[in-house]
């Protein structure tokens, strides 16, 4: 067994152990966060004894919202980066991002020791693309789950508005015991409502953080209700029905295009898997090819063509 294969095997074991550790820590933190949120919401439901609600003018903000606001980065550059990348919607702890960055640098250093700085740069680029793809998939899944939970929240708000509550009060009462990821988004809205009672502004911030047009639609509904009044419960009921109909149509479209998307996945991943197996099982052959000028150009050209082909397959299989 060659030293390069030993190093790659050890690195693979290290990555697997780190992934298991991160998964265990994430589940533990999510369980603790859900318990704390449940206890905090129970306390908040007992606080308003005179009909006032947290977040309204003249009422002190809720501790959970205040804690969420305090946890946001205070530096303007960090805030701008957080808004641009939608870090709040990722659901990933900053320590996990730091660990992933350190692993990427370690992989880059090992590849640079084996084949020079250019191979290390390619390894870092491949690792960055892999991490970006994982974050993108996680973000899409969280958005899909949030959209599945959103009609239930709107139905609860419609029932509360029907019995005489205002949209602001109905929102404050409906956010209790909402699971993640919708619960995380609602906590961000609650943090915004602790500083300003404008519910439309809070929904606009959620649209900016989560990049979901449904939050923008709700922001428009709440702004119209605040300025001009009207039957906001009927509008919210129609928005809930629209979201359900759209999700049903998207599921049907995904079922009809499953063969096309599977073919795109196979065609995009097959060259990468074969190339990775050649590099691991016969590293000497790859290193001889890499040390040759013509072979290096062929490898770089193949990587560029693979990236371009994957982009074309993504555009062809994209359903939006």
Task: Provide keyphrases for this structure.
single chain, 320 residues, mainly alpha, 14 helices, Type II secretion system F family protein, membrane, transmembrane helix
Number of helices in the DSSP assignment:
14
Question: What is the global morphology?
Answer: elongated
* Class from helix and strand fractions: mainly alpha
Distance between the termini: 48 Å
- The helix/strand order is HHHHHHHHHHHHHH
Tell me the fraction of residues in β-strands, as a range.
under 5%
Query: Which stretches are low in confidence, meaning pLDDT under 50 for 5 or more residues running?
Result: 46-74
How big is the Rg? Answer: 25 Å
Helix content: over 70%
pLDDT averaged residue by residue: 76
The main sheet comes to:
none
Count of DSSP E strands? 0
Main location: membrane
Subcellular location: Cell membrane
Keywords: Cell membrane, Membrane, Transmembrane, Transmembrane helix
Domain Type II secretion system protein GspF: 154-279
């Amino acid at each position: 067994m060659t030293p390069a294969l030993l190093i790659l095997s050890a690195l693979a074991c290290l990555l697997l152990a780190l992934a298991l550790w991160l998964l265990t820590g994430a589940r533990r933190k999510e369980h603790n966060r859900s318990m704390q949120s449940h206890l905090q919401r129970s306390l908040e439901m007992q606080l308003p004894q005179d009909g006032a609600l947290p977040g309204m003018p003249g009422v002190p903000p809720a501790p959970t919202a205040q804690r969420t606001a305090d946890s946001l980065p205070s530096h303007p550059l960090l805030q701008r980066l957080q808004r641009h990348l939608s870090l709040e919607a990722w659901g990933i702890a900053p320590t996990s991002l730091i660990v992933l960055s350190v692993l990427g640098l370690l992989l880059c250093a090992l590849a640079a020791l084996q084949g020079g700085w250019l191979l290390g740069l390619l390894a870092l680029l491949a690792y960055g693309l892999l991490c970006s793809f994982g974050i993108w998939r996680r973000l899409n899944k969280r958005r899909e789950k949030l959209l599945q939970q959103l009609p239930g929240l709107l139905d609860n708000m419609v029932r509360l508005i029907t019995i005489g509550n205002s949209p602001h009060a109905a929102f404050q009462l409906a956010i209790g015991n909402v699971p993640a990821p919708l619960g995380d988004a609602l906590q961000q809205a609650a943090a915004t409502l602790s500083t300003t009672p404008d519910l439309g502004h809070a929904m606009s911030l959620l649209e900016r953080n989560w990049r979901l047009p449904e939050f923008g639609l709700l922001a428009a509904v709440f702004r119209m209700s605040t300025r001009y009044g009207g039957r906001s419960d009927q509008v919210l009921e129609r928005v809930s029905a629209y979201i359900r109909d759209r999700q049903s149509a998207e599921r049907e479209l995904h079922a009809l295009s499953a063969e096309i998307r599977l073919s795109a996945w196979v065609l995009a991943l097959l060259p990468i898997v074969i190339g990775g197996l050649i590099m691991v099982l016969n590293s000497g052959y790859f290193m001889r090819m890499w040390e040759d000028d013509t072979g290096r150009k062929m490898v770089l050209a193949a990587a560029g063509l693979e990236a371009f082909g994957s982009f074309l397959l993504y555009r062809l299989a994209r359903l939006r």
